[in-house]
Amino acid sequence: MPKVSIEWVAELKRGSIQLCLLALLTQGSKYGLQIINELSEMSGGFFDLKEGTLYPALRRLEERGYLKSEWVERESGIPRRYYRITEKGKAVLTEATVVWKEMVQSAEGILRGVKK
Amino acid sequence: MPKVSIEWVAELKRGSIQLCLLALLTQGSKYGLQIINELSEMSGGFFDLKEGTLYPALRRLEERGYLKSEWVERESGIPRRYYRITEKGKAVLTEATVVWKEMVQSAEGILRGVKK
DNA sequence: CTATATACATAGTGATGCTATGTATTGTGC
DNA sequence: GCACAATACATAGCATCACTATGTATATAG
């Protein structure tokens, strides 16, 4: 059994990460490293985002008006930037979820036809 | 109900297309436009590849040794280039399918937690 | 002989996940 | 107190890949 290792794992995640970020933030406002940890936990380590992936993604989502962020000072510790989803973000999440399910169904239909 | 339209549909498909191409070609060797038509049919129009998407994708898969292609002359009509999956391609398909399912499960777990 | 369909091909663009690195503050062990 | 790690956010640069647009060639229909 040859070990092959696909090169395009990163490509498989593309787009889904934005979907997961919006979905996670419907649970309440969260800050960067918290998002990384919770996504990793909830996915059994599959979505293990690096800061270089997360922060640009959050920026994009905020630029599009899907998120709002604000700095929160603390008694002790470095200030944190909290992100929360907007109404527009919720609408887009609903829409994107539909498209995502279409994609999954389509791909599963094709994978079902695989001949060994 | 505001109409929003997500921008990143193309990103959602990324990676999945390569998976679907390999999966489809386990059914036998096929040529370009045939692949486009069959994928579109099997996915209810979701995977509606343009030539500019398909041919580079096939090239990449062939460069990596997952496909082999050959020209087939015909009695009448333009010659066609047929693609078939290699043993290496089948191994990668198996591996990629596992990763793909991990991704779907992970994302679904996160989507399940969505609060309206 | 023009128009349309078939068939493959590539150049260029844009989106985005990843690696690597940077900055600043806070907390901890000695 | 001082070095070192941990926390927290940030950005530059790269590679991948789906899409648009366009091009080439052959075949078929009227």
- Name the poorly predicted regions of chain A: none
Largest sheet of chain A: 3 strands, antiparallel
Estimated helix fraction of chain A: 55-70%
Provide the residue-averaged pLDDT of chain A.
93
Shape of chain A: globular
Overall SS class of chain A: alpha+beta
C-alpha-based Rg of chain A, rounded: 17 Å
**Helix and strand string of chain A, N-terminal first?**
HHEHHEEH
What is the CATH class name of chain A? Mainly Alpha
Measured distance between first and last alpha carbons of chain A: 14 Å
Q: Can you count the beta strands of chain A?
A: 3
In DSSP terms (H or I, runs of 4 or more residues), the helix count of chain A works out at 5
**CATH homology group of chain A:** Winged helix-like DNA-binding domain superfamily/Winged helix DNA-binding domain
Number of domains of chain A: 1
Share of residues in strands of chain A: 5-15%
Read across the widest sheet of chain A, the strand sequence of neighbours is 1-3-2
The fold-level CATH name of chain A is: Arc Repressor Mutant, subunit A
Give me the CATH architecture of chain A, please: Orthogonal Bundle
Query: Oligomerization state of this entry?
Result: homodimer
- Largest interface (C-beta under 8 Å): A-B, 51 and 51 residues
